[in-house]
Known about the structure:
Oligomer: single chain
Distance between the termini: 33 Å
Largest sheet: 5 strands, antiparallel
Order of helices and strands: HHEHEEEE
Structural class: alpha+beta
Amino acid sequence: MNPDALLLKALDDALRAGDDADAALARVGLVPWLDSRRPEQARALAGADLTPDPEAPHDCTPVQGAAAVLYWGLAAGSDKAAPIAGLVWPLTGGPARLLRALVMPP
């Protein structure tokens, strides 16, 4: 399996297991590009321009107002956008949702 497929499998496993953010981090085993529980990264997320990934347009979960957001970079980025995959935990509680998006440059 390629690294992207391994990441997506780990995220799917975390969703199926109902992992919280700490358990999902442990399951993935990689340092995320962004962990919104860290104040400086929450500020970065607030200013990020995320657009739906054409590879998975239905998985562009809204991140504003989330309790926690973790995401990792995927391969095949360009100078115009960086594809990401991660998880979003809603502020209202409940299970995480998958996030697939493109981070647009400022």
